[in-house]
Specification:
Elements lengths: L3 H11 L5 H9 L3 E4 L34 H13 L6 E5 L21 H9 L3 E5 L19 H25 L3 E5 L13 H14 L9 E6 L15 H11 L2 E5 L10 H7 L6 E5 L15 H12 L6 E5 L8 H20 L3 H9 L3 H11 L4 H11 L7 H12 L6
Parallel strand pairs: 1-2, 1-8, 2-3, 4-5, 5-6, 6-7, 7-8
This protein binds L-rhamnitol and zinc ion.
L-rhamnitol binds next to loops.
Length: 418
């Protein structure tokens, strides 16, 4: 029996034509892909031979307890998933490979190096998404990969990207749910370039080689991710938004929209209905940039709400894949996952609780006064009670009691990691 607070809230929404029961059902069916890299500050556990400290992005903070091995990362993820309502996915990077005997370089990676992750996902009923890793590697140390002028280096990265496609398809097959493969490269230039054209031509050529072999879209969906700038690529990024919008449109790829990859006042919410007229689907990298692409933990803020309002209002849920992309090393890393995922789900819930039909009708009739009044009215409806009910039905703590569990985990597990 649901608590009285839910019954009252349910009635208030029903009075405005919103059925909270359908809403709760729908919300429970929307998976969020949790980024593995939040658990170890985008480190990965590869053989140190390949690595070089040049991630292309900055993690700040030194909160104790970061995962040092795949086992620890999985243990932390289990704790996070236990306090997040619904059933979700894991988003893995190739630099989280595990070698049984001898380490191989990135262009020789195969499914065996990720089989433990796949088995673990199967055991925990999680979908698994996958990314080639073009950073933290000696051949990415000058910041160039698929646009590198040296064909040897370029082909090394092309081989890596192809290997990752095959791994992704295999994962999708094994788990019976398509793996989202997302390609992002760190390539760019710190200072003014004299030739913006050639690296883009090279990128197009590299991508076409990578995607040449046809793989089954029943098991594999492929996205490309643009960026405005990065640390060390302030002046020029060949894989810009315009570049990938054109690429995804002409090659029928998914477009990845990372909330932190645009001008600070530019919102990805408005892009959704435009790009979905031309690309088959989108991948969201839900993130929170503070003044720059800082990858702060996602919270229930206006930009995040606007993204999901657009997704729901346009009926775009079937064409929208939701992944998180933030990494904060200054707070408890498990709590960061939980806060960011729950905030994303709350933004979805608020969007689903909108009286869409009424709003649309006001708009069609030109009654913009009523439209604005209703939108404002909805903000003070008791959505907290609906969220609590959602958590209750999904058997996770609704209120802040989840934090007590994380604190216990911190005392017994995280604080034991030197
Ligand atoms: C980098 C991109 C990319 C990465 C992950 C680790 O700016 O946002 O998505 O954050 O692949
Ligand atoms: Zn991203």
């Amino acid at each position: 029996m649901s608590p009285a607070s839910y019954q009252l809230a349910r009635q208030q929404y029903a009075d405005r034509g919103v059925d909270t029961e359908t809403t709760l059902d729908l919300l429970s069916q929307i998976p969020i892909s949790l980024q593995c890299w939040q658990g170890d500050d985008v480190g990965g556990f590869e053989a140190s031979a390949w690595q070089s400290q040049n991630a292309g992005f900055q993690t700040t903070g030194n909160y104790p307890g970061k995962a040092r091995t795949s086992e620890e990362l999985r243990q932390d993820l289990i704790q996070a998933f236990a306090l997040i309502p619904g059933s979700h996915r894991l988003n893995l990077h190739a630099c989280y490979a595990e070698y049984s005997s001898h380490p191989v370089d990135r262009d020789e990676l195969a499914i065996e190096h990720f089989q433990s992750w796949v088995d673990w996902c199967k055991e925990h009923r999680l979908g698994l998404d996958f990314n080639p890793t073009f950073f933290s590697h000696r051949w990415a140390s000058n910041g160039l990969t698929l646009t590198h002028p040296d064909a040897t280096i370029r082909t090394f990265w092309i081989r890596h990207a192809i290997a990752c496609r095959q791994i992704s398809e295999n994962i999708g097959r094994q788990l019976g749910s398509p793996t989202i493969y997302n390609l992002w490269i760190p390539d760019g230039s710190k200072d003014i370039v004299a030739d913006r054209k050639t690296p883009r031509l090279r990128l197009e050529e590299s991508l076409d080689q990578i995607f040449k072999e046809h793989l089954d879209s029943q098991y594999l969906l492929e996205a490309v991710e643009s960026k405005l700038f990065g640390i060390g690529s302030e002046s020029y990024v060949p894989g810009s938004y315009d570049f990938y919008l054109g690429y995804a449109t002409t090659r029928k790829k998914l477009l990845c929209l990372d909330a932190g990859h645009f001008h600070p006042t530019e919102s990805i919410a408005d892009k959704i209905s435009s790009v979905l007229q031309f690309v088959p689907a989108i991948l969201l990298h839900v993130s929170r940039g503070v003044r720059w692409d800082s990858d702060h933990v996602v919270i229930l803020d206006d930009p995040t709400r606007a993204i999901f309002e657009e997704v729901v209002r346009g009926n775009f849920l079937p064409q929208t894949h939701i992944g998180l992309d933030f990494f904060d090393a200054s707070i408890n890393r498990v709590a960061a996952w939980i806060i960011g995922t729950r905030a994303t789900q709350k933004a979805l819930l608020l969007a689903l609780l909108e009286p869409r039909n009424a709003l649309r009708q006001f708009e069609q009739e030109g009654d913009f006064t009523s439209r604005l009044a209703l939108l404002e009215e909805m903000k003070s409806l008791p959505h907290g009670a609906i969220w609590e009910e959602f958590c209750l039905r999904q058997e996770v703590p609704g209120s802040l009691t989840w934090l007590d569990e994380v604190k216990r985990y911190e005392r017994s597990i995280l604080s034991q990691r030197p």
